[in-house]
What we know:
Distance between the termini of chain A: 46 Å
Number of domains of chain A: 3
Number of strands of chain A: 13
Oligomer: homodimer
Strand order of the largest sheet of chain A: 4-5-13-10-11-12
Order of helices and strands of chain A: EEEHEEHEHEHEHEHHEHEHEHHE
Amino acid sequence: MLVCSKCGREYPERFRLRCDCGGTLLVRHELPPGFSDALTGHLDMRRYVGLLPVSEEHLPEPVPAITPLSKLDIGDVTTFFKLEYLQPTGSFKDRGTWVTVAKLREEGIPEVVLDSSGNAAISLAAFAGRAGITAHLFVPAHTNPGKLRLLRKLGAELHIVNGDRMTVHWDAVRFSEEKGLTYVSHWLNPYFIEGTKTVAFEAYEQLSVPDYVIAPAGSGTLFLGLWKGFSELKIMGEIDELPTFVAVQASGHESLCKRSSVKSRLAEGIAITEPPRLEEMKAVLDETGGICISVGDSEIEQALEWLWGRGFIVESTSATVLAALWKLQESGFIPSGSRVLLPLTGSGLKMVEGI
Amino acid sequence: MLVCSKCGREYPERFRLRCDCGGTLLVRHELPPGFSDALTGHLDMRRYVGLLPVSEEHLPEPVPAITPLSKLDIGDVTTFFKLEYLQPTGSFKDRGTWVTVAKLREEGIPEVVLDSSGNAAISLAAFAGRAGITAHLFVPAHTNPGKLRLLRKLGAELHIVNGDRMTVHWDAVRFSEEKGLTYVSHWLNPYFIEGTKTVAFEAYEQLSVPDYVIAPAGSGTLFLGLWKGFSELKIMGEIDELPTFVAVQASGHESLCKRSSVKSRLAEGIAITEPPRLEEMKAVLDETGGICISVGDSEIEQALEWLWGRGFIVESTSATVLAALWKLQESGFIPSGSRVLLPLTGSGLKMVEGI
Lengths: 355, 355
């Protein structure tokens, strides 16, 4: 079923973005009695299909990968970088899109609408196109021309909007209402989080439970997915305690941390000042004793250089987690000897021709 | 041990590129009694470390991924696309580099030389840099500036050479001889093929034995790796017969097929007219009843469009295998009902800013 995070109202497990009260929804799917027994023999994301609210027959292609985890000592802590940028379209979004498209196929929905010009758009274009679902993508006019051509080649219907990010958003909403089409905002979509929660399952198999999870927290799709994955491991009796969650935000675009005056340009993937799942993110910090931390462009730039120098070809938003770790080591929040999980979210190969 | 493919002479299992007779070398490592028993529990390439000539303690980071396999019916055959472009640096080369760097570490070699401006260079720069090995990369002066910056950021020592590809090659060889440094040409290096052979192990676990393998065949590092992987499965008694191997080459750059007059510009990854492992590739075609097929730019372009439209964001060299499949279906070489493995070798995300 779907459960409202605000009023607790329950809905059947269909595609739906919000509760009637306006609250955001999460899936509460019946979990198997044990984690290990639920795993399949597949060497890709289908390994966790027994823990997802979709049936194997509707899973789209290509199937997202099980991504490598890379261990590194930084100062006196042990870090585990999860290479989420090694997914079919170059970001962790493929996990969420994959479960979403499976659900759309299950319900026979042939045409959907999304506003985004980033990794979520590329991901939806690729998976929807392959699954025979028409994806109307609303994108700002200033979007990089290379990206627009990529989206077209992947088969998306592009709607180019003059105006700021909110204008693009409202145009998409109006279009979906006028045409009676399904709006699939990943900021709201509960099935998206069902996909991202598998990052926690994999990380658990690869390193057991880390002491800290340091994750970007813009709209919260990955942050909440990680929390939900570890929470389900706890519900299944597989682990006793959740890791402490650190929410990383970008200077000038903070929603959980205090808003700074200087606006980051490098962390565009998390430049979201009013995320609809804000209260849920706050609850995760409360539950796990975590904190929010904000990073600025000079810190991000330094972290990006460091990551590329260690063979991690990521985009700048991905570097925020390392910048955050450095600050938290300095402040003493993360004690010596800790084991820390840091997802690296998006590929830097897109930047190669342009850098 | 290392065994010469030409005269059969044996050498100890150290880093070495050629036999004294000039012949190329392959590793003949003692195989475990059974394939399944040799697998480790790792969810990355370390799964196959029991079948590799390196010890676990020297394996570098990051560890290459187990890549997804994507199933698609094309006409009356079932294709399995292996997403080899989802590796840390965006190509299958990471598998070969990873085993190579493990071997270099085992032998305590601190500084190496390579000539390449493509995926092999990016891969070596990333893994060597991380492992504390200095990589001198000899690249042509006309290399894309974005790629040069990427190589520098990954920590490589760049040597920019005015002249054609052969001038670059001889400059690298001369430099390594003058300085007494190890030249690590992936065209010759037997440990590189030990890495690429794991593509066959994974594919076998994911789909069992295909009827056909259609692979790019420029220098032959992937083509021979696939053959070696399936051959070792046969030696271990895991499979009875090898798939039929199809070598795909690019118009104007053929070594196995008859040389065409029109030169392909899109398949730069396999534009190698005199591969040192030519005789070994011929032997694979003889052994498996396979053939060579050449494709041109208009066919590659059409195949690339098709792949992007199905969510496979690959570079143009990767599309050669699909162009080849289409031709072989038309000619009747690949019969109805066949199961065909097609590795997709390199990421197209590098093209996004530029396209």
